[in-house]
Amino acid sequence: MQMPVIYTNFISTYLPILNPLFNFPYVHINTISSSVTAKLIFNAFLNAIFGLVHTVFAQEFAQVFLGRFLFPKQTLRTVYCLLVTVTAFIIMGFWQHTHIQLWNWLPSTMSDYQQNLALFFIFNVIYAPAWYVVIQFNPFEFCGLKQIFNKTESIGCPYSSSVKSEARTINNPTLVTTGLFRYCRHPLYLITLLSLTITPVMSLDRLAFIIYTCIYGSIGIYFEERKLIQIFGQAYIDYQQHVPAIFPFSVSKTKQN
């Protein structure tokens, strides 16, 4: 849970005003500094905060409340993205490092900066397909900008309340089952796990974060798919029965007639 050196060096050189924001960790909690178990429990609590925000604020009741009392409906997707981003910074900023390395297969002759650069490159190569998924849904819609600036479409927006739940993305009311969605229902979860797991360097902190992510995914997917069933109905139920949730090699128990 450390910011890559390539990022911190760029920020300190060109955007020094942001140094306090990216200077992780924000604080060392002395009362748990000597206990690895206490650190792991505390870090799990941080991930639980992220999971709570990521799941609860995506639910229709939360979106209806925010749209009715706090924010214009066309800004809800952007507000949601900002909330998730803030909680991600909370995880990184307050993460208590165990400083335990499980393995490092990179050459010992490489400097710390070279190792960080190699890890940054490997992660982004593996994560690259995730950007294809974002493009499928339109990046501007994904972060909520289109909903804000397109007046003709701001009347109806994702997560708004209606007799029938509206589509999760404007102008995309049909279920997407093409591209990576042909192989698993949640390719972003899969790609994130692969990006974290396939690495020549593994620390206890990284392994713990992978485990926390798997636990959250098993819970978050349930609530996400419950909402998708409300949106797409029987079409999504059929999709569930024939396409695995995360791992493409999983075999569905229900065969198509």
TrEMBL record:
One of its GO terms (cellular component) is endoplasmic reticulum membrane. It is found in: Endoplasmic reticulum membrane; Nucleus inner membrane. GO terms for biological process: methylation. The keyword Membrane applies. Pfam families: ICMT. InterPro entries: ICMT_MeTrfase (IPR007269), Nurim-like (IPR033580). It catalyses: [protein]-C-terminal S-[(2E,6E)-farnesyl]-L-cysteine + S-adenosyl-L-methionine = [protein]-C-terminal S-[(2E,6E)-farnesyl]-L-cysteine methyl ester + S-adenosyl-L-homocysteine. GO terms for molecular function: protein C-terminal S-isoprenylcysteine carboxyl O-methyltransferase activity. It is an enzyme of class 2 (transferase). Its EC number is 2.1.1.100. Keywords: Endoplasmic reticulum, Membrane, Methyltransferase, S-adenosyl-L-methionine, Transferase, Transmembrane, Transmembrane helix. The chain crosses the membrane at residues 6-28, 40-57, 77-95, 116-135. It is a multi-pass membrane protein. PANTHER family: NURIM. Belongs to the class VI-like SAM-binding methyltransferase superfamily. Isoprenylcysteine carboxyl methyltransferase family. Belongs to the nurim family. This is Protein-S-isoprenylcysteine O-methyltransferase. It comes from Rotaria sordida.
